[in-house]
Amino acid sequence: MFNKILTADEAVAGVEDGMTIMVGGFLGTGSPEVLMDALVRKGVKHLTVIGNDGGLAEGQPAGEFAGKTPRGIGKLLENHMVDHVIMSHVGVNPRLNEQFADGSLKYTLVPQGTLAEKIRAAAYGLGGVLTPVGLGTPMETELDELGRKKEVMVIDGKKYLFERPLHADYSFIRATMADKFGNYMCSKATRNFNLVMAGAADHTVIAAEKLVEVGSVDPDIWQVAGVLVESIVEGEPKWQI
After folding, report:
1. Which range, of 55-69, 91-105, 204-218, averages the lowest pLDDT?
2. Pick from 14, 29, 7, 37: which is nearest to 176 by CA?
């Protein structure tokens, strides 16, 4: 069996300035922290980042659960590595609006369900998604997040907005447990975008909290097949949020 196990630095070695990456997580929950740390060490710039949100800045959320460091995509924003974010909301991490205000960052908002389905379409080779979300709004006529023209289609007398797939150079995913082939599962709230992003990029990398031998656990626990995974990194910290 081909060895997919790499260090975090090896797994991000192919990321170059200007690339588009996807990052799993929801407000820092389920983000692949060891991979974000490796990207910071690599120091790539001008990234386009696809994710649910901008992660967390240092000290968020408030109180006893405040992080001593940024979480998830927040680490990339803290180090000014991102030019464009494609997300479902940007209202939590203050770095997003600070960088938007100073002109160093562009963001494009996509409804959360539409964002997930556009990513899923890319993962499974679909031509796009038909959705009623956005009808009667500027979403009908404005270009999409990659500058592509929108289309309205009528099927069985009902109007739908045609949304094209959303693909990336790399998808970075956090797994609660994986085997050495790359079959993996995500526990509870860490599932979020970590399931749909597998296969939606040229390279899919997972950071696993626990790594087991192939065949050592009941295969029914796996939520995503390892055939979609190119590289596996061990040592993801225990879920903190």
Report:
1. 55-69
2. 29
Give the C-alpha distances (Å, rounded to integers) separating 195 from 89, 153, 172, 187, 218. 19, 29, 11, 11, 19
Query: Which amino acid appears at position 100 of this protein?
Result: F
Helix (H) or strand (E) holding 159: strand 158-163
pLDDT band at residue 241 using 50, 70 and 90 as cut-offs: low
Q: Are 93 and 67 in contact (CB under 8 A)?
A: no
The reported pLDDT for the residue numbered 62 is: 55
From residue 30, how far is each of 76, 131, 172 by CA, in Å? 16, 27, 11
User: Cα–Cα distance between 86 and 7 in angstroms, integer?
Assistant: 28
CA 28 to CA 69: how far, in whole Å? 11
* pLDDT confidence of residue 28: 86
What pLDDT is stored for residue 102 in this prediction? 96
Cα-Cα-Cα-Cα dihedral sign, residues 14, 18, 19, 20: positive
Q: For the whole model, what pTM was predicted?
A: 0.94
| CA atoms within a 13 Å half-sphere pointing along the CA-CB vector of 180 | 9
- Interatomic CA distance for residues 35 and 60, integer angstroms: 20
Alpha helices (H) in the chain, listed in sequence order: 8-11, 33-42, 73-78, 94-101, 112-123, 192-196
Residue ranges of the alpha helices (H) in 90-149?
94-101, 112-123
